[in-house]
Structures are given as C-alpha cells and as structure tokens.
Amino acid sequence: MPNFTARLVPSADVTLQVWTDPSTSSAPSRLSPRDVYQHRYWRVATGTTVEVRATVDGDEAPLDADLGGTLFTYHWAEWTTTTPPVITSPPGQSSVATFTVENMTGHYLLFVRRKSGGGVGLHFDVELVF
User: Fold this and answer.
1) Closest C-alpha among 40, 20, 48 to residue 123
2) Is 54 in contact with 95 (CB distance < 8 Å)?
3) Among 15, 78, 92, 122, which residue's beta carbon has the most beta carbons within 10 A?
4) Residue 55: what are its φ and ψ, rounded to 5°?
5) Contact 122, 79 (CB under 8 A)
C-alpha cells in the first residue's frame, strides 16, 4: 500500500472525461450496465505539457528536504511511440514531474514510486482535441 497519492494536475488540456461506448448492431457496450457508475478517463490533448503531483501526509508537492530521504521516481509502463516522453522534475522537488506529449496519441501508464513507500499508476489517453 503506497504511503502517498499522486495525480495529474487538471488544466484546459488535461481533463477527466466520461467514457461512452454505445452498443452497435454487431457488439454490445463494453461498459457496466449499472448507470450509477459512470466510467471516466483522463484525456490529454496532443502537444500538452502535463504536470504530476504527489501528496505525502496531506502535503501536496513537498520539497525533497521534507521527505526524509525517500524521494520519488517516475517511469513509463505503457506508451505508444518508440521513445516515451522525457520526464523531468524541478530541482529539489521530486514530488512534481512534468512531461510533454506531442503528436503521440494513444494510451499511457506512468508509475510514480517512492522507496519503501509503494507506487501509484496513472493511466491517461492522449487524443487529438479540436
């Protein structure tokens, strides 16, 4: 069990969307038939710089000096191109990461890890948004 949480920071180009998948004449919907549970996914527009923030003990994006030596690392588990986006963090603040997705539509999974603190996976889809 992780001892932190992590999230994508919402913006005009990083949004939580309702996933719709209506049935067709040849296939049923792949969504739960229970309407009380809306399926959602994070949509990121191509060309967007995305910010990720981790929270420890209620403190979002703490400085490394406040983490007792257990810093954050990031790595891609799923990406849709030959080379995944480069992940960077501000100096002295491993709890914040940024990356840019340019012309790379598809599904992504970013793992946020902390030594002896577990890991959190962040799924999102990069789409062309008009």
Assistant:
1) 40
2) yes
3) 122
4) -125, 130
5) no
Task: Provide the token pair at 104.
Answer: 């790379």
Q: What is the pLDDT along the chain (130 residues), one digit of tens a residue?
A: 899 999 999 999 999 998 887 778 888 777 766 667 778 899 999 999 999 999 999 999 999 999 999 999 999 999 988 889 999 999 999 999 999 998 889 999 999 999 989 999 999 999 998 7
Q: Domains of the chain, with CATH numbers?
A: 5-20+37-127 (2.60.40.10)
35 neighbors 58 (Cβ within 8 angstroms): no
- Contact predicate 80/29, CB 8 Å: no
3-state helix, strand, coil in the chain (%, to 5): 0, 45, 50
Q: What is the pTM of this model?
A: 0.88
N residues, the chain: 130
